[in-house]
Structures are given as C-alpha cells and as structure tokens.
Amino acid sequence: MRMMIAGQARRRVILLAIILATLPCYFLGWVALRVGAATRQSATDTPTPTMTVTATATFTATATFTATASATPTATSTLTATPAPTLTETPSLTPSPTVTLSPTLTDTPTPTETATLTPEPPTATPLPPTPTDTATPIPPTAPLDATPTK
C-alpha cells in the first residue's frame, strides 16, 4: 500500500512540475495577442463599382430534306446581344494612418575665398663695414745704440 501512495505522489509532483513549466509559455502567448491587437491597423471595405456586359450570339442552321427529288436547305441565323450590367463590390483594405514627410529646404552657407594682405617682416641685409680712422699704437723698440750682450 505504501508503494502505491509513493507512486501516486511522484506522478502528482511530475504533473505539477509540467504545469508550472508551461505557465510562462501561456503568459507570453497572452501578451503577444494583446500587443498584436493593439498595433493592428483597422481595415475598411471600399466598394468598387464594376460593370459587366454579356453578349450572347445564337446561330441556328436547319436543313430540311424531303423524299422528292429536290432538297431545300434552310439556314437561319439569329444574333442576340443582351447587356447584363451587374454591380460587383470588390473589398479592398485601406490603412487609416498615413504619415507624409515633406522635404525642407535648408540654407547652408558656402565658404568663399577672400584675399588678405599680410605684411612681411623686414629682412636683415648685411651692410659693408664703414672705414674708421683709428690710431694704432706702435710698440716701443730697443734703442739703436745699445749693444747686444752675450
């Protein structure tokens, strides 16, 4: 008896686990249906008149033969045109919201070149040396009457 209760309890636990594991799937399906219904566009039927004309041509040929030596063929042709106008509605889906974007002109300034005078710095030009009158000292020399020593 105890084995039977343990088997039933195990089955119940397994079934409960399966049910709990599938609940998120049901919830996601419900959310998808709600979101899809909110974003679906409404469709309107637009009747489109259509005219259909039907022409019927009937041609009947009848040949009559008698037992006499002469045969009298008879041909009868009948052409009948019967206009039958019908109005057929063709439903078409027309989405309601329409977004139209219009191009906008934008004034964009274009850079232009302008001539600008820039003064150049003066350059140093070497000048030749200027002559000057300067007295050059002469070193004293030995007297002429001195005799050399050995």
Overview of this protein structure:
25% of the residues lie in helices and 12% in strands. The protein is an alpha+beta fold. It has a domain at 2-40 and 52-80. It has a two-stranded antiparallel ribbon with strand order 1-2. A hairpin with a 7-residue loop joins β1 (56-64) and β2. The mean pLDDT is 74.
Number of helices: 1
Radius of gyration: 61 Å
**Principal-axis shape:** elongated
- The low-confidence parts are none
Summing up helix and strand content along with how strands pair, one would put the structural category as: alpha+beta
How many strands?
Answer: 2
The whole-number mean of residue pLDDT values reads 74
Beta-strand residue fraction: 5-15%
Largest sheet: 2 strands, antiparallel
How do the strands line up in the largest sheet? 1-2
Question: Which percent range fits the helix content?
Answer: 25-40%
Give the ordered list of helices and strands.
HEE
Distance between the termini: 156 Å
